[in-house]
Design a protein that fits this description.
Blueprint lengths: L1 E6 L7 H16 L2 E5 L3 H6 L2 E4 L28 H11 L4 E6 L1 H12 L5 E4 L15 H22 L2 E6 L6 H10 L3 E3 L7 H13 L5 E5 L11 E6 L5 E3 L2 H13 L3 E5 L11 H19 L5 E6 L2 E6 H4 L8 H8 L4
Parallel strand pairs: 1-2, 1-4, 4-5, 5-12, 6-8, 6-11, 7-8
Antiparallel strand pairs: 2-3, 9-10, 12-13
Bound molecules: 6-O-phosphono-beta-D-fructofuranose.
């Protein structure tokens, strides 16, 4: 078979491990030919390809980013975009496509599958907010980076008797903030699912100062104070309509400083959370997803996404996979709240 593969949306540690697994299993077990498309859907629209043989994927397992490149190109936002995608795939004789991405990339895949494209999706996002899978690869790496940052910030914060506000990624879901905040012993964790009361946050910080230590506040970039809008870095939107977030950490640091009368600084972890080598957990999960995608293609499955349920890899319909985001439930947030203040 000729299998196409692309990586779309924000990059994520583990993408190269998926590519490697698809190529290795496809070639070794089925004699497949694997064609990579450059920069997500853009490469399919423009017919820009890279041949992927075993030599091309040597050494990829621990490498961060994606050797195929990525973009947030949305064929459905372009005149004749979906037709161009289907034409390219037809012209190149691609029998099945493996798009690796989050809700946006897989949303496009789902619509193309409905239009007749043979397609098996692989979930990817450091935000871990795809409902149909227990975990996405990249999340464990991002949490590791954020936790290490929090560990380091405790010692400098305590030395200077100041509040440190750590802004982490998480547009709609606060999984990174929740896990890193719990692992790092944060004074407060603020997530998009739960608009926060600024007075309560300041009170927790004051309590931490009173106990002789300095507060660490972990805030998702998509978190909002009660009654206030999202804090955005610019007014720009991407092809899927998302605004660029950023700035909540700085805004919060200013208010906490005012309320506690102690210096407060913000640290934005940003893309550091997405870059660099994946953790062993993410390498293994990404590899298993890649292997399962090849199995699904050869079983004749289409319009499905591979997913982790417990310790098993299963297939779920793409339509179900993108239907809703996995948000932090009240009871998980309550576990973190026990340690606030
Ligand atoms: O979707 C993953 C994500 O990391 C979000 O948490 C974040 O809002 C977004 O990507 C940032 O992406 P960009 O690289 O386009 O700034």
């Amino acid at each position: 078979m000729r299998i196409g593969i692309l990586t779309g949306g924000g990059d994520c540690p583990g993408l190269n491990a998926v590519i490697r697994a698809v190529v290795r299993k496809g070639i070794a077990e089925h004699g497949d030919e694997v064609i990579g498309f450059r920069d997500g859907w853009r490469g399919v629209l423009d017919g820009e390809t890279v041949p992927l043989d075993v030599a091309a994927v040597r050494g990829l397992l621990p490498r961060g980013g994606t050797v195929l490149g990525t973009s947030r190109t949305n064929p459905y936002a372009l005149d004749g975009g979906p037709e161009r995608v289907l034409d390219t795939l037809d012209r190149l004789g691609i029998d099945a496509l493996v798009p690796v991405g989050g809700e946006d990339t897989l949303g496009v895949a789902s619509r193309l599958a409905a239009a007749g494209l043979r397609c098996v999706g692989v979930p990817k996002t450091i935000d871990n907010d795809l409902d149909a899978t227990d975990y996405t690869f990249g999340f464990d790496t991002a949490v590791g980076v954020a936790t290490e940052a929090i560990d380091r910030l405790h010692t400098t914060g305590d030395s200077h008797h100041r509040t440190l506000v750590v802004e982490v990624m998480g547009r709609h879901a606060g999984w990174i903030a929740l896990h890193a905040g719990m692992a790092g012993g944060a004074t407060v964790v603020l997530v998009p699912e739960r608009p926060f009361d600024v007075d309560a946050v300041a009170a927790h910080c004051q309590h931490r100062f009173d106990s002789g230590f300095s507060p660490i506040v972990v805030v998702s970039e998509g978190a909002t104070p009660l009654g206030a809008p999202l804090t955005t870095a610019t007014g720009q939107r991407d092809a899927f309509g998302h605004v660029r977030l950023g700035g909540i950490g700085e805004a919060l640091a200013r208010v906490i400083e005012e309320r506690t009368g102690r210096e407060s600084r913000a640290v934005v972890l940003g893309h550091i959370q997405r870059g660099g080598t994946p953790t062993p957990f993410d390498r293994v999960l990404a590899t298993r997803f890649g292997l399962a995608a090849v199995d699904a293609v050869h079983d004749g499955a289409t319009g499905v996404m591979v997913a982790l349920r417990g310790t098993d890899i299963v297939r779920v319909p793409l339509t179900v996979a993108i239907a809703q985001l996995k948000l932090v439930p009240v009871e998980r947030y309550a576990e973190a709240e026990v340690f606030f203040g």
